[in-house]
Amino acid sequence: MKKTVLFSVIFFVILFFAMKCDSSSFSSKEIKWKSNGTELSGTLLLSDNPAKSLIILIHGSGNIDRTSSLYSAHAKKLAKMGAAVFYYDKRGVGESKGDWKNATFNDLALDAIKAIPKLLEYPEVANAKVGFMGFSQGGWINLLAHQQYTKTSFLISISGSVNTPEDQGRYINKKTLEGLGYGQAIHQIVDSIEMINSKVYRTNSGWKEAENFIKPYKSEPWFKDLGLGLQSKDSWNWKWYGNLPSDFNPKTYLEKLDIPLFAAHGGKDLLVDGNNSYQYLENLKDHGKNITNYYDVNGRHGLRDKKTHLIFWKKSYWSDEYWNAIQSWLSEEDLI
Q1: 227 and 136 housed in the same domain
Q2: Other C-beta atoms within 10 Å of 81: how many?
């Protein structure tokens, strides 16, 4: 009984001090703004002193709002480092209106850009350098935001891919098939199916030919595992996929990059080829680009550190090494 009581006391003492150490050293402001008529909602985090940088977080794919642990954890951590941070609900999610399923990559980039005039009204960020921090698909949106907002001072990409959307899809299929134990022959069949499906989605033609091609494979277990069947014509997938820029290649933008970039990659990322992205950016760095690469050989998508899940008082799911790398880079670039 005494041991149980003692353990309980120790538990709550540790938890109390952990929560105290995690207490906020910044204030928050609720922001409403419009992007091409669509009302969006977000939160601006401000430290006590005027910020040297304003970091705007950009979402990955899917339904993402401010309650996501990925975004809220990064926003608060960066704010504690001294940056001003803005993170928001993706259109059609949380308190933001609209529908991301009907949006193009350029629309999503514009959503972030349109918030900037509103943010710069606050004296704490009036003279701050503005940059974008994209996660996963947000790494692509980063590049478009920089192209459209010429005053962009820096970019941060977490688990961003340097490959095209189509190549990215092939990588995900490859890793899924490998995990299920399928060989190269199945990989090639899946690639062919995806190429045909892509053409149908983009052109809204060739439906019959595509159905005839995939018909022999519909009963295969890998076909269902990957969800390779064509969506019905009333599915939102059609318009969303059609909105993806068919000629979008992030390498085109990266090769013209004229501002500092911090990029983080995971060696065990099943959604993005982290090693490929790291090697490509290292090559650009060797050719004079201001790029800082962080690579975690055991890192997963979003660079989450699985080990920290086991530490009950540690709210962060990212390693200290990861946070230190970001903080060091921000300091070196005079952004905090």
Answers
A1: no
A2: 18
Distance CA 229, CA 215 (A): 9
* pLDDT tens-place string over residues 279-326: 999 999 999 999 999 999 989 999 987 665 444 444 558 999 999 999
pLDDT value of residue 7: 44
Instruction: Tally the domains of the chain.
Output: 2
**Rounded to whole angstroms, how far apart are CA atoms 288 and 207?**
47
**In a shared domain, residues 116 and 149:** yes
Residues 133, 54 share a domain: yes
Q: Which domain holds residue 120?
A: 23-164+248-332
DSSP secondary structure, 89-139, as one string = PPTTSTT--S-GGG--HHHHHHHHHHHHHHHTTSGGGTTPEEEEEEETTHH
Please check whether residue 9 lies inside any domain of the structure.
no
Do 200 and 267 lie in one domain? The reply is no
- The residues facing 42 across adjacent strands are 31, 88
Q: Would you state the structure tokens that stand for residue 208, as one six-digit string?
A: 């019959």
Residue 146 is encoded by which pair of tokens?
């920089």
Cα 15 from Cα 288, distance rounded (Å) = 47
The predicted-structure confidence for 259-271, as pLDDT tens digits, reads as follows 999 999 999 999 9
Q: Does residue 11 lie in a domain region?
A: no
DSSP state string for 182-203: --HHHHHHHHHHHHHHHHHHHH
Whether 69 maps to a domain, the answer reads: yes
Is residue 290 assigned to a domain? yes
Cα gap 255→122, rounded to integer Å: 34
Residue among 197, 192, 227 nearest 210 (CA): 197
Q: Are 249 and 166 in contact (CB under 8 A)?
A: no
Domain boundary among 243, 278, 306: 243
Q: What are phi and psi of 38, to 5 degrees?
A: -95, 125
For 74-115, the pLDDT digits (tens) are 999 999 999 999 999 999 999 999 999 989 999 999 999 999
